[in-house]
Q: What sequence folds into this?
């Protein structure tokens, strides 16, 4: 039997996704070995193979078929815009993509001023401001700690992920507008969906049942 290969966004999400799969009978002890530097893990019983990748690379591995399946946040899926099928909401890692800033920026936003927007997500920010709000802004791409930007005068607002809101609160920033809800999603390569249809459909059905049973 050919391995079904999964690309997991490394970090908290990978651990949660593996725990969910473990509750479906996927056994991958190697994954839980502390301090392992190993990149690929196998579950011989089910014929599954897992690897950890940087979140933004997961849709790339899936589009090219190096992974049949990916588990990654909707933020990354939207930002990367790859040709992949999004098949299931795993209902974990729930958060929101928001426009945030100091309260003083609220008026600039409403008055449609030419403001600067700092973000790790230029595609999402551009789509929101240009297509949904039909407002011209200057987008500044950053790679992390985006909340710094309005504090030091790089931008008036940011587009970023808000989970608990702690980072914003501790830095005197607020949610000014909500762009969209986010959570972890399962994505599938277009060819794999045809070639491994039975196995992938069975997996989706079992995951959906498991998620539903844990919800209530
Ligand atoms: C994310 C996000 C916010 C923070 C939101 O950052 O970019 O900074 O989490 O979480 P909260 O609402 O619970 O405070 P991440 O930890 O991924 O770090 P980074 O921004 O430096 O990449």
A:
């Amino acid at each position: 039997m050919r391995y079904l290969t999964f690309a997991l966004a490394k970090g908290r999400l990978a651990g949660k996704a593996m725990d969910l799969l473990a509750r479906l009978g996927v056994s991958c002890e190697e994954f839980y070995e502390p301090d392992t530097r190993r990149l690929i893990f196998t579950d011989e019983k089910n014929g599954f193979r897992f690897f950890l990748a940087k979140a933004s690379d997961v849709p790339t591995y899936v589009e090219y078929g190096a992974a049949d399946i990916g588990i990654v946040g909707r933020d990354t899926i939207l930002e990367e815009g790859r040709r992949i099928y999004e098949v299931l909401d795993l209902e974990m890692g729930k958060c929101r993509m928001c426009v945030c800033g100091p309260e003083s920026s609220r008026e600039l936003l409403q008055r449609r001023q030419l403001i600067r927007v700092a973000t790790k997500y230029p595609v999402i920010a551009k789509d929101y401001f240009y297509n949904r709000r039909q407002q011209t802004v200057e987008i500044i791409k950053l790679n992390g700690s985006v909340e710094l930007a309005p504090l030091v005068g790089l931008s008036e607002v940011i587009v970023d992920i808000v989970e608990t809101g702690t980072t914003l609160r501790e830095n005197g920033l607020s949610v000014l507008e909500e762009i969209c809800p986010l959570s972890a999603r399962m994505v599938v390569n277009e060819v794999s969906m045809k070639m491994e249809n039975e196995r992938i459909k069975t997996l989706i059905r079992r995951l959906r049942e498991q998620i539903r049973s844990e919800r209530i």
The domain at 4-93+183-215 is CATH 3.40.190.10 (D-Maltodextrin-Binding Protein; domain 2). The first helix runs from residue 12 to 22. DSSP finds ten helices and eleven strands in the chain.
